[in-house]
TrEMBL record:
Belongs to the peptidase A1 family. It comes from the Eukaryota. Residues 1-333 form the Peptidase A1 domain. The active site is at D7, D223. InterPro entries: Aspartic_peptidase_A1, Pepsin-like_dom, PEPTIDASE_A1, Peptidase_aspartic_dom_sf. Disulfide bonds join C20-C25, C254-C296. GO terms for biological process: proteolysis. Keywords: Disulfide bond. This is Peptidase A1 domain-containing protein. The keyword Disulfide bond applies. GO terms for molecular function: aspartic-type endopeptidase activity. SUPFAM superfamilies: Acid proteases (SSF50630). Pfam families: Asp (PF00026).
Length: 417
């Protein structure tokens, strides 16, 4: 049984291998291929030898994997020969709550010998539509594989075309900051005359209507595996001044979750109808554990490549985001109750019972799962093609636990046997 991070910013599924003997690997569940009755030989390159070890580098952390394949079961759905990686080495960065990663980006980003598991489901025509959706609201989280019968959100879906089918990335056309008060601008603790004058000049430049347009052109990658919003450094500085954050956004008064500006991101192609304005409210980008005494931080962090934004989980909060691989687009639906995910009583969902994913021939039965106190309950549903069942019936083949860890991190449980 593994706890895995659903990551729309990468393309590989991997879990720790029983052949990894480091302390980091041993702190997690480990996959033992010898115990699986349906594990298949490692993939072979066309006209070449078996594919051996591959190294994968992430923003933080690195793993060495060897490809293998097995049968994946979701309830009554069965996908044959799903390829994934056995992690032979993991850097200490992965000494985290989750065991492995479940990449959901495009095959062009996959490691040699691997295919993104969602694309394997699509290729085997196991879904009624080749799309998946994240819904993160105040009442919990949900991941749907396939097209949801009806709508999980109250408003219609607004679609935005991808830059290209590789990352889940769209054009960022502009950012409009809707300010509550000009006095929130913060230039640090220095009281030098030069900085006082600079602050005065900046305050005088703010428009009277409290709306500030930021000069931005770039690309935004929707990444469910990132807990923050990585920005070009200069833009992170500007935004955090507007928020009132210091130390590159690492420190901010928790009251900013109600007083901070709302940032309206215009994404997509501004020359066509394929664009959308997505608001990010202060309760979505002010991160904390619910205790103001522990302090808070801004989700807007420097470190993004030039003209590129990594749009992490604050962008997913309080809305449904749908990823459509066939049409190369992302859809957005706003939830009606736009409440903070960070204010939930997440201790109340410990010891929930859920169904599980299965790898291998012998599936384990559902059992009580004890989760850490900073994960809240959610669901995953898989929908059959219409030819396999009644088109009017909702076919939820699996209900899984997912959640948000380390403030906001999408996780779920799988079995490999």
């Amino acid at each position: 049984r593994f706890l895995v991070n659903f990551d729309s910013g990468s393309a590989d599924l991997w879990v720790p291998s029983s052949r990894c003997h480091s302390a980091t690997c041993k702190s997690h569940k480990q996959y033992n291929s010898k115990l699986s009755l349906s594990q298949a030989p490692r993939p072979v390159q066309r006209g070449g030898p078996k594919i051996s070890r591959t190294q994968i580098e992430y923003g933080t952390g690195m793993v060495d994997i060897e490809p293998t394949q097995d049968t994946l079961r979701w309830g009554s759905a069965k996908a044959l020969n799903i390829t994934f990686g056995e992690a032979i080495r993991m850097t200490p960065d992965f000494d985290a709550q989750f065991d492995g990663l479940f990449g959901m980006a495009f095959p062009s980003l996959s490691s040699p010998g691997l295919e993104p598991p969602f694309f394997s489901l699509a290729r085997q025509r196991l879904l009624n539509a080749n799309q998946f959706s994240f819904t993160l609201g105040d009442s919990g989280g949900r991941l749907d594989l396939g097209k949801v019968p009806g709508s999980a959100a109250d408003d219609k879906v607004s679609w935005v075309k991808l830059v290209k089918p590789q990352f889940w990335a769209v054009n960022v056309q502009s950012i409009r900051a809707e300010l509550n008060t000009p006095t929130i601008i913060n230039f640090g603790d220095s009281t030098s005359k030069q900085q006082q004058q600079q602050k005065k000049q900046q305050l005088l430049r703010l428009p009277e209507n409290g709306v500030l347009n930021l000069n931005v052109k770039g690309i935004g990658l929707f990444d469910s595996g990132t807990t923050t919003i990585l920005c070009p450094s200069s833009m992170a500085t500007t935004i955090n001044r507007l928020i009132g954050a210091s130390d590159n956004g690492l420190r901010v008064d928790c009251s900013a979750s109600t007083t901070g500006p709302t940032f309206h991101f215009t994404i997509g192609d501004d020359r066509s109808s394929s664009h959308f304005v997505i608001p990010v409210a202060p309760h979505q980008y002010i991160l904390g554990d619910g205790n103001p005494g522990h302090g808070c931080m801004s989700a807007f962090q420097p470190g993004g490549p030039k003209n590129k934004w990594i749009l992490g989980l604050p962008f997913f909060a309080n809305r449904t985001i749908t990823f459509d691989i066939d049409d190369g687009r992302i859809g957005f639906s706003q939830l009606r109750r736009n409440l903070s995910l960070y204010e939930r009583d997440i201790d109340s969902v410990v010891d929930e019972t859920s169904s599980t994913l299965d790898f291998g021939r012998n599936a384990s039965t559902p059992e009580s799962i004890s989760t850490a106190s900073n994960i809240f309950a959610g669901q995953l549903a898989v929908y059959k093609p219409s030819h396999a069942s009644s088109s009017t019936e909702t076919n939820a083949l699996a209900i899984l636990k997912i959640g948000l860890a380390f403030v906001l991190n999408i996780l779920y449980q799988v079995y490999i046997s």
